[in-house]
Amino acid sequence: MKNKIFITISFVLFAFCFAVFYVGLQKPNIYTPKLDKQIELPNFVGNDFFSGKKVISDNLLKKNNYYIINIWASWCIPCRAEHSFLMALNNKNFNLLGINYKDNISNAKSFLNELGNPYSKILSDKNGVLSIELGAYGVPETFIINKEKKIIKKIIGPINDKNFKEILELIK
Amino acid sequence: MKKLIFISALFFFLSNNYLIAVDKPTELENKIFKNLRCLICQGQSIYDSQSDFAESMKIVVRKNLEIGMSEEDIYKFMKKNYGEWVLYNPEINKGTYLLWSLPFLLFLIGGAIILRKLGVFKK
For B25-91, CATH number? Predict the structure, then answer.
């Protein structure tokens, strides 16, 4: 009798562990944060890409406006791929802010000359600090900020067709 | 010979200068680096990683310590930006209770099995 209980308990434990690990293995191992609640955009200070002057987020982001923050670099190949989407977003009624990530200024300028400049303002992030303060992982990355200055969507990686439609839907 | 002495002197001067220029992390900085996960690496802390992401995180940690943030404040700041996963020492909540309780549970069950095998309960 005791032996039966022991076997049953062992079996249940084994099945439980198996189920936990099986479910765990099904999950993708690339971590992407869930944005189930809107995150307040932290205040930040950066340097203007062209003039080098200090820029404070409060002066840059006004309430009652939608903003898109895009982190990019000239050395980043996926940034090149998503650039046409950013150019298309440029004509819509919101502000597109660029953060130039760990880049060489002259390379970045020739990137913009070649593909066009969709940004209303670009900040320079020489050592990646600004991106970390915003909660970014790397390049390219795009945040959609609503009228209450809250991040309502994070796109990690290049913008694709689906993301583009989502953005247009969000900022209607 | 003079050239050789000059070159070696120059080398020592430059290498010493370089060593002074690179800030050695303090014990507290290292502790924080070890407790923060490099989110774009495979199972490495930012202490172990030299990726762009980890290097930027280290600068942010140093900067925050300089402006007077405590270790706990830095963890809170990182958790706010990147979620629970960025910490190597997750808090106990409804998502992590199994993680915390399972080792104890397995320890107790394992202990009970060993004691049973040794016949402790029969006495």
Answer: 1.10.8.640
